[in-house]
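ok so dumb question maybe but i'm new to this and my supervisor (M.) told me to 'just get the structure for Pyridoxamine 5'-phosphate oxidase family protein' and walked off. so i did the thing. is this what she meant?? sequence i used:
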Amino acid sequence: MPNVTPVGTLFLREDHTGYYFDQYTDALARNLDAEPRVCLMAVDSGSLFWFRSLLAGRFGAPPGVRLYGTASARRPATTAELELVRRRVRPMRLLKGGRLLWSDFTHVRDITFTEVRPVRYPVMMSHLWDSEASD
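this is what came out, is it supposed to look like this??
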């Protein structure tokens, strides 16, 4: 059965690829082993972006994107990948919860992205493109 899984440790590269730390995602890992196609959604969570958009009744830019691609098999993280995630979460690792969440990363999955689509809210985005176009 499909399962929505938050993936908070995704790193994107310039070449339309990325990787994420395959930790705490047991259902996702099982699903990817059977079917490697993925769709990740990233949403602009900035409060100023949302406040301005709601005040104006329209988005100045799409509020998010869907990234479609294929995930690789699980592999050990490289030293460089481990160092990057450690730098990213270093301030939060000073807290008990941060140490619990981000201390045991060992494996990643690479993702090759093949398509990107904006997240659409036609009522507030009709000025950005034809709202009749399909998602």
